Amino acid sequence: MLFTPFGVSADYAAGEFRLSARVMCADIQLFPRPARKTGKSKKPAKPKRKKKDEAAKAAKPQKDKPPLVTREMLPELLRLLTRTLSRFRRKLTVNRFLLHITFAAADPYDAVMAYGAANMALAAAGGAASRAFNVRSSDVETGVDFSSEKPTLEAGLTVTISLARIIAVAAAAGAGFLKIKRRAVKAAKAAAKERKETDGTDADPDGRVS
Questions:
Q1: How remote is the C-alpha of 192 from its chain's centroid?
Q2: Contact by Cβ (8 Å): 153, 112
Q3: Which long-range contacts (CB under 8 A, 24 or more apart) does 139-143 make?
Q4: Can you name the residues that pair with 98 across neighbouring β-strands?
């Protein structure tokens, strides 16, 4: 199960959009939802459990807990988020990328201009995408139809990833967060100790004066 590829598959053609979940090589259609078979009796709804008395919880004394994230940690956390997203991107596999565009317009000159601009944009984007993602299959075609006034578009995308790769990315992100948190706690304790030695203030590591 850890190495079973799963992901999503999306297709658009003739004004219709379809979204499916990909498990190994099988697609499970999610949108539009397939029609359900009628005739089955619905199971009686289970009675909801009553919520616990919130007043009793509020009456219990709660200890002040230090914040999980402080302002000093934000710059390092942003860098960690950037590295995590980049690592996750490299773990994704683009199994299928399909893009067929036929340009058409009432004025043939407009169709030709749009065709040229699209080809330049696709050439630049295609090179960057091939370096950024692991693309296994790519099918991109553009054309011009002078006999029509409406352009046509057909697109498809299948992206998969395995659970093992997700766990690897999450573990690296968790280890990075723990390092940042450990450094922040040490810095807070050092600052509190310096304040106490300077002015005699008895402050805890979170900056609260006792």
A1: 39
A2: no
A3: 139/96, 139/97, 139/98, 139/99, 139/100, 140/97, 140/98, 140/99, 140/100, 141/99, 141/100, 141/101, 142/100, 142/101, 142/102, 142/103, 142/115, 142/118, 143/101, 143/102, 143/103, 143/115
A4: 139, 156
Work out the number of other CB atoms within 10 angstroms of the CB of residue 5: 16
8 A C-beta contact, residue 108 and residue 148: no
Query: Amino acid identity, residue 119?
Result: N
The per-residue pLDDT string of the chain (210 residues; one tens digit each, 9 = 90 and over) reads: 888 889 999 999 988 999 999 888 788 899 888 777 665 555 666 655 555 555 555 555 666 677 888 888 999 999 999 999 999 998 999 999 999 999 999 999 999 999 999 999 998 888 888 888 888 999 999 999 999 999 999 999 999 999 999 999 999 999 999 999 999 999 888 888 888 887 655 555 555 554
Rounded to an integer, what distance in angstroms lies between the CA atom of residue 151 and that of residue 119?
A: 15
Two structure tokens written together for 33:
């939802």
pTM equals 0.68
Under 8 Å between Cβ of 23 and 6 = yes
